[in-house]
């Protein structure tokens, strides 16, 4: 039976962006499947002791910027360290991605496009028009997904995703769960792969 990685991520997290494609590659190498679960850190941090960026101590903010300069160079990925539209609300994009998932779509590509929009393309993924354009470019019906993402079930889906993340011990993003074993951060992907190799 194929192993499953449950992957909780925020669509405005630079760390989720930096690890997103690598996770898919690791899963493919080991015949594992990925359950893509976009969440909102605004629902996670208050319940787990986390702080939004603006409320963190200056030393923590400075170190974050240092790491954001290191990792894209190491991975060979483009990234604007201080993008024009960050911070921005991660809920509209998460609701859109979850609406696509509820329709049976594989949301790996859509999610990556949303993260690239924030961290590479200087686009605001809290804006409806941006979300529609990105969904259309991913080969989906952006207008229909946008309607569903703004409908009565959309927030309930996101709330349920956040509840599931909390049950799995998630306190930040990205978060990977493999057979109940938790891994926090894209810099733990080597450990995720080592676990998949072990069995």
Strand and helix layout:
Layout (H helix, E strand, L loop, with lengths): L3 E6 L4 H16 L3 E6 L2 H8 L9 H18 L15 H12 L5 H12 L8 H10 L4 H8 L4 H14 L7 E4 L2 E4 L4 H10 L1
Parallel strand pairs: 1-2
Antiparallel strand pairs: 1-3, 3-4
Structure in words:
With 199 residues, this protein is an alpha+beta fold. 54% of the residues lie in helices and 10% in strands. The chain is built from nine helices and four strands. Strands 2-1-3-4 form a four-stranded mixed β-sheet. Strand 1, helix 1 and strand 2 form a beta-alpha-beta unit. Helix 4 crosses helix 7 and helix 4 packs across helix 8. The chain is globular, with a radius of gyration of 16 Å. The termini are close together. 36% of the residues are buried.
Overview in brief:
This protein has about 200 residues and is of the alpha+beta class.
**What strand line-up does the widest sheet have?**
2-1-3-4
Count every beta strand, where a strand is a DSSP E run of 2 or more residues. 4
SSE order, as H and E?
EHEHHHHHHHEEH
Radius of gyration: 16 Å
- Stretches where pLDDT is under 50 for at least 5 consecutive residues are none
Label the structural class.
alpha+beta
Q: With helices defined by DSSP (H or I, 4 residues minimum), what is the helix count?
A: 9
The helicity comes to: 40-55%
Task: Tag the structure with descriptive keywords.
199 residues, alpha+beta, 4-stranded mixed beta sheet, 4 strands, 54% helix, globular
């Amino acid at each position: 039976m194929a192993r499953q990685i449950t992957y909780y991520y925020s669509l405005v997290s630079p760390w989720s962006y930096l690890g997103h494609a690598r996770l898919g590659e690791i899963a493919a190498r080991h015949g594992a499947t990925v359950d893509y679960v976009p969440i909102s850190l605004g629902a996670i941090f208050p319940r787990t002791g986390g702080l939004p960026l603006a409320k963190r101590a200056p030393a923590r903010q400075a170190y974050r910027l240092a790491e954001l300069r290191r990792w894209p160079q190491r991975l060979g990925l483009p990234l604007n360290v201080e993008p024009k539209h960050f911070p921005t609300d991660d809920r509209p994009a998460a609701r859109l991605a979850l609406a696509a998932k509820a329709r049976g779509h594989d949301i790996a590509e859509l999610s990556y496009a949303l993260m690239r929009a924030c961290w590479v393309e200087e686009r605001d993924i809290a804006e409806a028009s941006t979300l529609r354009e990105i969904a259309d470019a991913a080969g989906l019906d952006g207008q229909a997904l946008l309607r569903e993402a703004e409908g009565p079930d959309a927030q309930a889906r996101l709330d349920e995703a956040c509840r599931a993340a909390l049950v799995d011990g998630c306190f930040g993003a990205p978060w990977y769960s493999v057979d109940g074993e938790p891994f926090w951060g894209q810099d733990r992907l080597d450990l995720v792969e080592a676990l998949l190799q072990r069995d």
